[in-house]
Amino acid sequence: MILTVSDQDRVRTLVLNRPDALNAFNEALYDATADALLEAATDPQVAVVLLTGAGRAFSAGTDLLEMHRMATDPTFERGKHGFIGLVDALVDFPKPLVVAVNGIGLGIGATILGFADLAFIAADARLKCPFTSLGVAPEAASSYLFPALVGRQDAAWMLLSAEWVSAEEAREMGLVRQVCPADRLLDVAREHASLLARRPISSLVAVKRAMTEPHRAAIRDARDRENAAFAELMGGPANLEALSAFAEGREPDFTGLPPGW
């Protein structure tokens, strides 16, 4: 199974389970994760969702080999939800979402933290928003959520530079609540999730709604702007060079692109 689901003490744990692909999101994993969030949202026995990854990565972001096919193959069949459907499920998820970043987090593996109500990260984990190195735009409303979470300067660096951010830097920014020893990460995350899950679900939902409702319109507007920019840039000269370089196992060279790219 590409996503494992388990329940304990009103906490539903979702584990991204493509360890050989560093839990990169293909269309199937986007669909499975969106479906799991939609199911948890309406399940009266679930108070909290805890999300983590299997193996040495949290998530390497979108599966770039599949993205290359998507950008170049007009017959490629997209999933039921896809990336946009997962983001919609995250925007609308009404219960506390706890994220435990157990290893590297790239792309959606980093921007998903914008939707986390509590986030914990292993001390040896790292985060990267690789959008400019892929010739595309930001995603998952990160252009709105990250400045709100960490301030404009740190958000601009993460979104513009495509450089790695260490676990401690992520904590200093305010992107995560706590840095944990790798062997304690899940225990710490589960302790917090279980504490929340002992509270009335109705109160948890009310508190989260009160906190997020003022931002919903801005999040959706940011998502729409990002999706439009992403669609415009995907398959363009910079993106195709980045994806071709990835498929060929080399560094992209953007110096020969047409002016303006």
From TrEMBL:
Where found, per UniProt?
Answer: Peroxisome
Q: Which InterPro entries match?
A: ClpP/crotonase-like_dom_sf, ECH/Chromodomain_protein, Enoyl-CoA_hydra/iso
List the Gene Ontology MF annotations in alphabetical order: delta(3)-delta(2)-enoyl-CoA isomerase activity
Q: Report which superkingdom the organism of origin falls in.
A: Bacteria
Sorted alphabetically, which keywords does the UniProt record give?
Answer: Isomerase, Peroxisome
- Principal subcellular localisation of the protein: other
What Pfam families has UniProt attached to this entry?
ECH_1
Name of the protein in question: Crotonase
Give the source species: Nocardioides aromaticivorans
